[in-house]
Amino acid sequence: LLLAAATLPPPQGEVAMTGQTVRLVQPNAPQQQKWDPAYMPVFFQRQVDYTAAAPRPDLVVWPEAALPNRLNITGDPLQIIADAAAGAEVVLGLLRPGTEGYYNSLVRLDGTGAVAGIYDKHHLVPFGEYIPYANLFSRIGLSAIANAVPGGMTAGPGPQLMPFGALGTAVPLICYEAVFAQDVAGAPGRGSFLLQITNDAWFGTWSGPYQHLAQARMRAVEQGLPMIRVANTGISAMIDPHGRIIAELPLGEAGYADAPLPAALPPTFYAKTGDFPVFLLTLALVFGLWRYSAARNREISD
Predict the structure, then answer these.
(1) Would residue 64 show up in a list of annotated catalytic residues for this protein?
(2) Which of these is catalytic: 34, 89, 129, 175?
(3) How far apart are CA 35 and CA 79, in angstroms?
(4) What span, in angstroms and rounded, lies between the C-alpha atoms of 121 and 5?
(5) What does the alpha-carbon distance between residue 80 and residue 78 come to, in Å, rounded to a whole number?
(6) Would residue 121 show up in a list of annotated catalytic residues for this protein?
(7) Where is the CN hydrolase domain (predicted)?
C-alpha cells in the first residue's frame, strides 16, 4: 500500500473556497511564562488586540488554554473578547472546572460573547493530564504516583460535531487528538472542516511542533476536509483538504493570519471505510501464514 501510494501523482488544481475568512491567532506564550500571573494579562491582551484588528473576519480562533482560569484583569474576559471581535464568532481554549478536576475545553462564543458551544477533550495525555490506574496506585499504597498530576483533567464524552452557521460544521480537536485517526473518524457524522487548537510550547523549537503539524495534515487528507489549526507558539495553519498549507504562522512568532476557508471534498475512501480494509488485509495475512505453516508441517510429517 505504501509503495502504491508513493506512485500516485500529487493532487492537481485549485480547491474551491467557501467565501468565509478565518483569523488564526498565535500569542506565542512560552511555557515557562504562560501560567505566570505576571504574564497572563500580557498574552491575553495580545490576543485581544489581534482579534480587534481590521478587517473583521467571520471567525477568530485562539489556541488551547488561551484563557487561563487565574487571569487577573478588570472586567469580564468573555465580554472583552466579544467587544474586540465586533460581531465575529470566536473559538478559544480554556480550562473549566469539572466533577473530578478540570476539563480541557474548546469553547465557541457567538457574536455577542455568549457561550454557544463547548467541546471537552476526551483523549487525555497519560501522565500529563491524568495518571492511568490512579485508583489502583492509591489502593496499593502508592498515592504519591496517583497524585502526580494535581487536580488532573476529566475526560469529555467523546468526538462530536460543532455547528458554526455559514461556515458549516466542525469536528473539534484539542492538541494531540489530531494525531489519532479514530478521534477524527469517530465523530457522529461528517463535518465541513476540522478544527484543532493546541499548545505545542512544551516542545520548544525542537521537532515536535513540525511533526504535530505533519500529522494534522494527514488527518485532512484522510477525510478530504480542510483543517483550521491554531497553536500557541506555532505552527498555526490553514490546511486544504489535500493537505496543502495555504496560510501559516511560523514557529516561535506572535501574530495573526487571515485565511480563506477551503471547501470540503467528497468523502474519501478512508472516510467511508476507516481502518476496516486494513483489518481485512491483516486477517488475510494471518490466514495465509496459517495455511502456509500447516502445509509446511504436512510436508515435514510426510
Answers:
(1) yes
(2) 175
(3) 22
(4) 32
(5) 5
(6) yes
(7) 25-263
